[in-house]
Amino acid sequence: MKPVAIFRHARSEGPGYFATYLERRSIPWHLVAVDQGERLPRDARRFSGLALMGGPMSVNDEALPWIAPLLELVRDAVRKDLPVLGHCLGGQLMAKAFGGAVRASPVKEIGWGEVRVSDNEPAREWLGELQCFESFHWHGETFSIPPGGTRVLENANCANQAFALGRHFGMQCHVEMTGELIRSWVRGGAGEIAAGRASPGVQRPEEIERDLEARLEALHRVADRIYDRWCEGLARG
């Protein structure tokens, strides 16, 4: 099998649990370090699928030279029937590539929060009979559901927490988190957390790190469902 391409847009926002998931199933993967200036591949057929991670930048920042080529690579993957998976910024990139919009979110979210599974067939295809779960969040922007896509996750702070479009799945929330990632983000984002205290979606550091291992264990069970479904679409040639 060709490797899954994982696009890292910030050194602090690596693949986390997603890499663990792939390795446990002997699925090869290749890191494309966009944050280090690595040149983007031009042909999506080099890979069995594309996975886009998070990052602090905006997809609307036209000064970033890699945004436009990455959007085109996502569209190339779709044309060639290769699955695309997006986490937070990655979900926003997917939405924009598919014709949606990315704008400021009404409520900034940092920390843990419940996410509801939408009542529709695509949501059930991806998440079975699951009705809600606690996910991790860190975002100030959000995406619209692109043409042809269906909302599959939502919550009170952000209506569009995830969308499905065929074999493609774009998330605003973070199911790939590990304890190491969360502790690192809390340390590095202390100023952002303090500045966002007025938002009902921003938690204090001690709230974020409370019962961390149990929360992550539950989150990873949900991630397994999503990743299982997504990996069914990987190119096997």
Please tell me about this protein's structure.
The protein has 237 residues and is an alpha/beta fold. It has one domain (4-231): Rossmann fold, CATH 3.40.50. The chain is built from 8 helices and 9 strands. The chain has helices at 17-24, 67-79, 89-97, 121-127, 179-188, 190-195, 205-208, 212-231, and strands spanning 4-8, 29-33, 49-52, 84-87, 102-117, 132-143, 150-154, 162-165, 168-171. It has a 9-stranded mixed sheet, sandwiched between helices. The model has no long low-confidence stretch (mean pLDDT 97).
Spell out the blueprint of helices and strands.
Blueprint: E1 4-8, H1 17-24, E2 29-33, E3 49-52, H2 67-79, E4 84-87, H3 89-97, E5 102-117, H4 121-127, E6 132-143, E7 150-154, E8 162-165, E9 168-171, H5 179-188, H6 190-195, H7 205-208, H8 212-231
Parallel strand pairs: 1-2, 1-3, 3-4, 4-9
Antiparallel strand pairs: 5-6, 5-7, 7-8, 8-9
Helix pairs in contact: 2-3
Quickly describe the structure.
The chain is α/β, with parallel strands linked by helices and 237 residues long. 32% of the residues lie in helices and 25% in strands.
Major sheet attributes = 9 strands, mixed
Helix content: 25-40%
Specify the CATH class.
Alpha Beta
Q: Give the H and E element order.
A: EHEEHEHEHEEEEHHHH
Taking pLDDT < 50 over at least 5 consecutive residues as the criterion, the unreliable ranges are none
What is the CATH architecture assignment?
A: 3-Layer(aba) Sandwich
Question: Which radius of gyration do the C-alpha atoms yield?
Answer: 16 Å
Output the structural class: alpha/beta
Annotated CATH topology: Rossmann fold
Major sheet: arrangement of strands: 2-1-3-4-9-8-7-5-6
Overall 3D shape: globular
- Terminal residue distance: 6 Å
The tally of domains stands at 1
Mean pLDDT: 97
Tally of alpha and pi helices = 8
* CATH H-level homologous superfamily name: Class I glutamine amidotransferase (GATase) domain
Content of β-strand:
15-25%
Number of strand elements = 9
